[in-house]
Design a protein that fits this description.
Layout (H helix, E strand, L loop, with lengths): L1 H33 L3 E4 L2 H11 L4 E4 L14 H8 L3 E4 L6 H8 L6 E4 L37 H18 L4 H25 L7 E4 L5 H6 L3 E4 L11 H13 L4 E4 L5 H11 L2 E4 L8 H6 L3 H16 L3
Helix pairs in contact: 2-5, 2-6, 5-6, 6-11
Amino acid sequence: MRRQLNVLALTVMLPVASLAACSDAKDSSAGTSQSPPLVAVGFYPVQEIVESVAGKTVKVVNLTPPGQSPHDTELTPQQVTDLSTAKAVFYLGQGFQPQIEAAVKKLDDSVIKVDLLDSVDLLDLTDKLAGTTGDTDGEELASGKDPHIWVSPKNMIAMTDTVTTSLQKLFPADSAALSADAASYDAKLTSLNDSFITGLNVCESRTIVTSHRAFAYLSDDFDLVQVPIAGLSPDAEPDPQTLEAVAAKAKADKVTTIFFENNLPPKLSETIAREVGAETDTLDPIESLTAEQLKDGTTYISIQEQNLASLRTALRCT
């Protein structure tokens, strides 16, 4: 009798269990369908573009961790996995990030792979200041061109257009929404560009002396002259010849400010200021944002607004 009851109970439970299994499968399927497709990007400025255009449609994975230079990026196993499941990847080629570029070449042909260097006209590298010794702090593409295309707001607009067109091909059903969000971001970049035009229109000097050769595209846009200094790095103090050359350039071009990156040790900054009779300030090349900056809501545009304020002060613009 007990056995009959057990069999009967099992018979009654089977449809219920089957129903639950179907429900679980349905939920799992729904979860999968609701999970946004993955789009990988090489480093921060591209991340901001894709999130601004398609943040409602895709999940963006930045292959360069917060606070790390994009040139030093080495992919982790998890990042390789993320990249292999991505629907699209936006990056800079020509050796800008070698590991990412090598991994992209191995991706399936179904993945949309976009080298954003193809979106703009590339500039030659700016020659270092004559008379300075040592290496110039700045990267170089395989073609010998300057990679820092994103520092120009106009180039950011061009890259945004390329990203939008690529994503519309991938997600045709979302084409209108992508176009609307891209237009909104383009408007912000256009406003930023206009602020630079107005803010740098009338200045006593148009020469920016920099330790990092990252501002050629910005200079080209707004009629400035970038003068990168060799031998100025956080690792060593410059030799007397370099200091003399910088001082002479500062005097000849009415330069009152030498621009460095944020990682310059205070001691070196003070040495430069004392020896060449100029102030020091920072220009941010916006290659990577720290975790704290991301948490605080810092963006490409907010950093560029600070860069503009620094330039206006240094160049004595009215």
